Amino acid sequence: MDSIEYYNQNAIKYFELTVNLDLKENWDRFIQLLPEGASILDLGCGSGRDSAYFISQGFFVTAMDASEEMCSLASIHIGQEVLNLSFAEIDFDEVFDGIWACASLLHAASSEMEDIMYKIINSMKKDGVLFMSFYYGDFEGERDGRYFTDYRNRSLKELIGKFENLELIEIKKYDVIYPDREAEWIHALVRKIDIIS
């Protein structure tokens, strides 16, 4: 089973597990870096939890997810259409002030990340901000029916360093308390900048 099929088969369970998680500290850290009324892509929106918060704060949100079933649930939750797109299908040209990739890019193999990151960077306006979060660690492979690539500070900095038009704002490690467990996470905030020749 691949990760997309996992979410299609477990959509209701995953929705109920994640929809009420409070990530306000991360949400507010992200949106304080954006202009008022900014356009945000919620990349791998899952339950739509984060999109709902951004919409409530007056932002224009485009939500997308690779799982058709998650799209259906998220669409009901946020009251608007959710695009059923995979990472490979991202094809925006400097549309977004911010891209929020919370617990989504962690399902991409490390060998695919450069191509995906180019698509993400191309989707952002100049000075656009990207938030991306991963499980903290060194593991890569299948776990709990899905594919995961974990990152540590060094590996995440190495990934970001491959793109000269990305400027690192912060990398932060933290814990998330789920209804059934606690997990270590790491996130990065980066800004798209002009390349000085």
Structure in words:
With 197 residues, the protein is α/β, with parallel strands linked by helices. It has seven helices and nine strands; from the N terminus they run αααβαβαββαβββαββ. The protein has a single domain (3-192), classed as Vaccinia Virus protein VP39 (Rossmann fold, 3-Layer(aba) Sandwich). The model has no long low-confidence stretch (mean pLDDT 91). The strands form two sheets. Strands 3-2-1-4-5-9-8 form a seven-stranded mixed β-sheet, sandwiched between helices. It has a two-stranded antiparallel ribbon with strand order 6-7. 31% of the residues lie in helices and 31% in strands.
How do the strands and helices of this protein lay out in sequence?
Blueprint: H1 3-9, H2 11-18, H3 24-31, E1 39-43, H4 49-56, E2 60-65, H5 68-78, E3 83-84, E4 96-101, H6 113-123, E5 124-135, E6 140-143, E7 146-149, H7 153-161, E8 166-177, E9 182-192
Parallel strand pairs: 1-2, 1-4, 2-3, 4-5
Antiparallel strand pairs: 5-9, 6-7, 8-9
The CATH architecture assignment turns out to be 3-Layer(aba) Sandwich
The tally of domains stands at: 1
| Category by helix and strand content | alpha/beta
pLDDT < 50 stretches:
none
Short description:
It contains seven helices and nine strands. The chain has helices at residues 3-9, 11-18, 24-31, 49-56, 68-78, 113-123, 153-161; strands spanning 39-43, 60-65, 83-84, 96-101, 124-135, 140-143, 146-149, 166-177, 182-192.
